[in-house]
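Small ribosomal subunit protein uS9
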Amino acid sequence: MSTADPQTEDVQNEGTEATAVETTTTETVEATPAPVEHVVKTDPKTGEHLGTGRRKSGVARVRVKAGTGKIVINDRELAEYFPHEQDQNAVMAPIRDSGYEGKIDVRILVTGGGPTGQSGACRMGLGRALLSMDAEVGHQLKDNGHLTRDSRMKERKKYGLHGARRGTQFSKR
């Protein structure tokens, strides 16, 4: 350093002082999660929040409004329409996870597919309707998979085979 002139030493010192000031003034900012993107769909006549869900071949159109916890699927009660507890739990999962159990009335029209596809479609449609009603529960619904479309479909049968992949039995002799 003795060979350098005093002006360059000052410039070098100024640079170190500036970085020291910069490091002391940095602030920690808490990261807030970005809101879940959604479209608010409401029926202007009834004020019900709408949501559509699909799973396998099942399609569910869901309507949600403030109420007493009544769930009606195709004009029948939940336990009557889905006798298996697994399907009932799939339909109730978005309501439990969002904290609206006993606070909303749900009407669902579901068509196509079997019980598993229909209950999965109801689950997704109900999640979307709840998101339309209250954007605050979006992260809970998304984290638990209620807003994610399950794209798995039945694979089609191919000609020359017995099923989608099953071929004829091989005979060595």
